[in-house]
Amino acid sequence: MKRRSVIAIAGFLAACLLVPGWGTALAEKAPPPLAKPVIGVILPFSPAFATIAREQKNAIDLAVAEAGAPVDIIFKDGGGDGPTSTAAFNELFGGGKTPLAVITCSSWASGAVHPLAAEKGVFHIAIASAAMSRTHPRHSVRFTLDAAQEARQLREYLTRFQRIAVFHMDNDYGTNWAKILKQDLGGRMVISLPYDPENKDFRPALARIGEEKPDALVLLSAGTAAEIARQARETGIDAQLVGTRPIERRELLDKSAFTNGLVYTYPSHSFTHPVIQGYQAAYGAPPTIFGLEAYDAVTTLLAALGEGPTSPGALFSWYAKRVYQGALGEVTFDEQGDAVYPYLYKQIINGRFQIADFQYPLLLEKTRQEILQIFHKMDQDVALAAAELSAAGLTGKEADAILQRLCEKNEHAYDCVSVDARGTIVNVAPVDYAAVIGSSIAGQEQMIRLHATRRPVFSQAIETVEGFVGFDLQHPVLDPKRQFIGSVSILTHPTFFDRIVSGKVANFPVEIFLMQKDGRMVYDLNKEEIGRNVFTDPLFTPYPALLKVAKKMAESPRGSGRYDFLDKKLEKKVAKKLIWDTLVLHGTEFRLALAYLEG
Ligand code: COI
Ligand code: CYT
């Protein structure tokens, strides 16, 4: 610990010398005018994170200069661990200036400062802090997506690997992430080792990792990942390299011979925000997410202060549930004070950080597979119920139990009914829906097919007697003498597709929708579109490219295209790319499409 903080201080001093203007700013001891609010900023100027801290400081200087607001920013070195950050926080109270707010970078610094700031009544903003838990509610806001959320996204990519090794920084960021991965991966995580980010020689640990013959190596790292990648490759580890948000640092591109192919999760932030140009012009390199978070943190804080509130509670309320457009893109704060914004997969390709094209077909296929799996389970269960009802008959105690079981086994079932040979519902589970008994569904398209073929059927979107648009899976029931006596069905829950699709789209900047071959939209994130026909509804007619793509979708089971349409909120026209595939059950086809912004 001692040795580290000495290194940290040395790093801090080095940073002072390297950053023009900062050394002199620290040397000036003149007290500021009283009206100026003081904001303490604790950044990790220790060697392993110094470029991150400097970038954040640069971005904060830009934000302050742009706002032109009277504010006194005091930078402190939080080093690479909690105790150094705590000391930095305490130092803030030294010079007779009481900070109104404190900003901390890194999970360890934010975790250490959060309770102290709450006790001192200082409002707290955490940046670059994916792993931070709160003991004091309504006190800290955070501009970083929680690691658990990012992990939900990373998981989709990791499913293809069987022997996953994890090599993580031995700090709150690394250990918390490793814990999450352990939970997610179970036995597929074959080894997990910590490393000191100030270290230079990772070969002994990498040799241990190599013995496990991993097919993926997850690095919970910042810029050190470049050196780790080099040593890993030289040790003979040829595993796919995988990373998370902090890994996108210049060092990785300097060693692209070793880092090419790295796949990692990263915010899909705004690429057009003026600060990106401004930062590049001022500092000669583009900012990464570290700078963008710092910029948004200070910009919003100064905006909040400009509107009046200064107490921690009032400032917290200003942020909670707020939606703003910033350098991070569209950001929504939840009621805990955590920022939420989309992440996507990036990849180092040809020595550049690029948005990974593989993610679109990956997400489409994962969604398709999940829906198909549910279809097949429902189908097997309905087939079994049909066989059981053959002997039991469509009504009576035994039939009740069969329908009950069918429903309980299928969480996406709204209800399960048996239908007589004329197409009238004669039994239902759960019993609460008894009102549907006696209704004729003989005119529904799937019933007409079932009666004509006496084969299992899956409906298109139908108006159900239950009163919503749903999807109906029916199997014929034959009595023991093979006579047709009726059918048995699962009707899907009204939110069936929404539940599955929103789980998969999670936090990715994509939209997934379902269209029938006749052009009817059967599922879309935007409820206003559901039920409308792309070919005939006035909502779609102003978009000829969309109509053209929809026609192609109706004709071919899979394909791709581009079109212009309204954004997610149906507000402004945007260019989109589209890929689609098909879901089939008993001959009924749905086009499952994934759209994303062209960019
Ligand atoms: C985090 O803790 O989430 C970070 O990104 C810290 C960073 C200095 C590596
Ligand atoms: N309802 C149901 N059609 C309906 O309208 N439960 C099955 C089929």
Major β-sheet strand ordering: 7-6-8-9-10-14-15
Shape: elongated
Number of strands: 27
Q: Which ranges are low-confidence, i.e. pLDDT below 50, for 5 or more consecutive residues?
A: 1-34
Residues in β-strands, percent: 25-35%
Query: What is bound: which ligands?
Result: 2-OXO-4-methylpentanoic acid, 6-aminopyrimidin-2(1H)-one
Integer-rounded radius of gyration? 29 Å
Distance N terminus to C terminus? Answer: 46 Å
Number of helices: 19
Oligomer: single chain
Mean pLDDT reading? 93
Mind summarizing the main beta sheet? 7 strands, mixed
Helix % is: 25-40%
Q: Strand pairing plus helix content: what structural class?
A: alpha/beta
Describe the structure concisely.
Helices cover 39% and strands 25% of the residues.
Please tag this protein with its features.
599 residues, alpha/beta, seven-stranded mixed beta sheet, five-stranded parallel beta sheet, 19 helices, elongated, disordered N terminus, binds 2-OXO-4-methylpentanoic acid, binds 6-aminopyrimidin-2(1H)-one
